[in-house]
């Protein structure tokens, strides 16, 4: 005995129902397709009929009017002009091409919000039934009514969209937070203003002490500013049982999202553009940033200097505070080696440096592995040769001089170090603006942010340059002759493990290692290793070199 096939699909799928596959279907009535739509964001209140209710009405209409349902096209999205509707397009193509004699839709505003341009193509050419209005596109007497109702639906959507935009703009000018509340913060329902969330969060596995979301946020900023890596911090918090707002484990990415978000300083933000961009400050008509916290709450937020330092350290524009020799890595290249296959760090395992990403996940497309006894002598030789070949106008020497001064004078003013890092960060921010502007990021609704962002970025660079100039005065020479004229290798050989690591760090930022061409092949540093040499942290090295 034959068994009828059963069609199954995941819940919420938009794949159309196909009643033609029913093996028991023997009637000869003409077919009709059903077009069902409900917006993800319901604005019509109780008049927004559910998808299921629309389908029930459509099937009832088909039975009453001598039709049988062929396909059910389901949409859960807007019908406005800038929304792609593949199911709507397929249903329209089917009825216009004669594949199906008729298309049923619950109401004109469920069909489209584009107005007359959406309904004119079917008038007198294909049968589309608008059930709620009791209109038929093939009925000559209904043509004017269909056009009028379609235009009414378009005008309603335009007015509704305008009202929503103006209401949101007014609320943002008042500092109201309209989106999902970020982790660590709580919102006042009456004012939509934010404040630190001091609700007990969870108990740690060790000591069973309670923490609050805001304490987690403070810890993230303080740890990153102190030099702890985002990955290490995430690993530590996960080990303690801490979780994100969604209940998931912390990752380096989620730590970064906290650090870069201005809301923790009390600023209102919007997020135009691609996913993953730094949240954008909201600015009012005067070009001023707007606070999303009450004035008496501002003192509880993350201080601006701490936030700025954490961001500089995270982005690599500022080095972490120098640690004591105890506990520092003893391998001279630790922390500086990267796998060319995936860009991940390479760590010491046994006697070799290996791709950490491949070691943990096995997902690196070209995992690198290299013997320490082969790589380190090659890098040291290249380092010494590069310093020996550098002339007085070489930018590398400026970078070496900057780092040598900090290495030999750890008591150097922290304000100078911070000022240099702030200048590098400010210049990077301006460069990012110029890149976004060239790529057309500030178009459409984002256009209003272009000038305020440009002015803010330029002012930040100007202020950073003035601050550094006030702290350092005119540029002065730093004696690095001990590293020149072939003496760098001798100095490295005479140093201890920590000193050797610091010396290489004067001139080398990264060492990229490629996968070996095959097993048993002799190490070829020129073919497998690319050294990323240091660059000055300031933009005035040409003037410095000219004056030397």
Helical segment tally?
18
Structural class designation = alpha/beta
Strand line-up in the sheet with most strands: 1-3-2-4-5-6
How much strand? 5-15%
Total beta-strand segments: 18
Describe the fold and architecture.
- The chain is an alpha/beta fold.
- It folds into three domains: 143 residues, Rossmann fold (3-Layer(aba) Sandwich), CATH 3.40.50.1390; 131 residues, Hect, E3 ligase catalytic domain fold (Alpha-Beta Complex), CATH 3.90.1750; 148 residues, no CATH class.
- 41% of the residues lie in helices and 12% in strands.
- Strand 14 and strand 15 form a beta hairpin.
- Helix 12 packs antiparallel against helix 16.
- 28% of the residues are buried.
- The N terminus and C terminus are likely disordered.
List its traits.
18 helices; 3 domains; Rossmann fold; 18 strands; alpha/beta; Hect, E3 ligase catalytic domain fold; 548 residues; six-stranded mixed beta sheet; three-stranded mixed beta sheet; elongated; disordered N terminus; 41% helix
Secondary-structure topology with pairs:
Elements: E1 17-18, E2 31-37, H1 51-64, E3 68-75, H2 86-96, E4 102-105, H3 108-111, H4 116-119, E5 127-130, E6 135-136, H5 143-173, E7 185-187, E8 194-196, E9 202-203, E10 210-211, H6 213-225, H7 230-239, H8 252-260, E11 269-270, E12 280-281, H9 304-315, E13 337-339, E14 346-349, E15 352-355, H10 356-361, E16 369-371, H11 372-389, H12 395-408, H13 414-438, H14 450-472, H15 488-494, H16 497-507, E17 508-513, H17 525-528, E18 529-533, H18 541-547
Helix pairs in contact: 6-9, 7-8, 9-13, 12-16, 13-14
